[in-house]
């Protein structure tokens, strides 16, 4: 027979309400009592009945993660982090791909709200910046947390200092003697694209180098756009000696295009990316990149949302650290 919440309460010598509070990670349970309840759950192999739990609390215990991003490596990291937080707090997670530029985008999200009743959303770029959606969620009273939003005020979630990270990456290339440094921009609708471009420009200006528009080519965060951008850059009469791509997928595309043009990385051209997703360690040469803790950002954003849902304050916008990862794809200019 299925173990009930009441059975756990009896075994632990507490009330069913106390077991419910432990399940919901509420703070007003003493440590020894919490440990006793958790031990009883483990001994009895108790699994919460989500339907009954939902009916009792008028919640769905479902978090929906929305995305419109071609970088599968980045998305996998974010979604895994959200799932970590949901598992920790006995929530389910729904992942929904949507086209932010679609004319019926808000209507599709509204249909998701009506059909699945998520308790809240985790938004990823560029959906984090969709004004109509944000206004609609506010109107409906549906909470959300954002990963890397452009504006950090009045929202909860997680971010890193992307302009500073880009400055450090370009500073690394400058320290290797590179002066013809190109940049492949991400999708124009993503806040990260503007931040990383700003950091690139700031680093050049600090080094007394002019900004050359010919060395800046737009991509969309996909491998294919990195290939296309690199073909343009490598066709220049005075080609760059280094390319800073705004994410790892595009940087991998740049390395592919370098081989197509007979260029060796890093002997003929240094290449670096951003995010430190698995592909950065799976390609050769391994990629110099900025470690953005994407999985942790997804987890923290979800935790802020869940804290808000449980009434533990309104949640926060949390800044996480980044780190420059120097690998084999960058070297002194030859």
From TrEMBL:
Keywords: DNA-binding, Transcription, Transcription regulation. InterPro entries: HTH_LacI, LacI/GalR-like_sensor, Lambda_DNA-bd_dom_sf, Peripla_BP_I. SUPFAM superfamilies: lambda repressor-like DNA-binding domains, Periplasmic binding protein-like I. CDD domains: HTH_LacI, PBP1_SalR. GO terms for molecular function: DNA binding. This is LacI family DNA-binding transcriptional regulator. Residues 3-57 form the HTH lacI-type domain.
């Amino acid at each position: 027979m299925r173990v009930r919440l009441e059975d756990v309460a009896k075994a632990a010598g507490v009330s069913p309400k106390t077991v419910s509070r432990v399940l919901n990670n509420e703070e007003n349970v003493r440590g020894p009592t919490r440990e006793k309840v958790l031990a009883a759950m483990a001994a009895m192999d108790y699994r919460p009945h989500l339907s009954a739990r939902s009916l009792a609390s008028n919640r769905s215990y479902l978090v929906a993660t929305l995305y419109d991003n071609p970088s599968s490596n980045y998305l996998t990291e974010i979604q895994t982090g959200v799932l970590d937080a949901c598992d920790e707090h006995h929530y389910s997670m729904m992942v929904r791909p949507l086209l932010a530029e679609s004319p019926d985008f808000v209507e599709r999200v509204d249909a998701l709200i009506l059909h699945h009743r998520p308790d809240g959303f985790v938004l990823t770029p560029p959906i984090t910046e969709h004004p109509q959606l944000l206004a609609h969620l506010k109107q409906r009273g549906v909470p959300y947390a954002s990963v890397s939003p452009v504006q950090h005020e009045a929202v909860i979630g997680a971010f890193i200092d992307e302009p500073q990270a880009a400055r450090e990456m370009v500073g690394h290339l400058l320290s290797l003697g590179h002066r013809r440094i190109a940049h492949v921009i991400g999708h124009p609708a993503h806040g990260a694209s503007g931040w990383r471009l700003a950091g690139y420009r700031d680093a050049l200006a600090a080094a007394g180098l002019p900004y050359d528009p010919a060395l800046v080519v737009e991509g969309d965060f996909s491998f294919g756009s990195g290939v296309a951008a690199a073909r343009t850059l490598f066709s220049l009469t005075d080609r760059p000696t280094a390319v800073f791509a705004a994410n790892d997928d595009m940087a991998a595309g740049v390395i592919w295009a370098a081989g197509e043009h007979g260029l060796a990385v890093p002997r003929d051209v240094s290449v670096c990316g951003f995010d430190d997703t698995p592909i950065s360690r799976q390609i050769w040469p391994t990629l110099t990149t900025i470690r953005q803790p994407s999985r942790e950002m997804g987890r923290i954003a979800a935790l802020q949302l869940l804290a808000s849902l449980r009434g533990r304050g309104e949640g926060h916008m949390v800044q996480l650290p980044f780190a420059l990862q120097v690998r084999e794809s960058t070297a002194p200019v030859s």
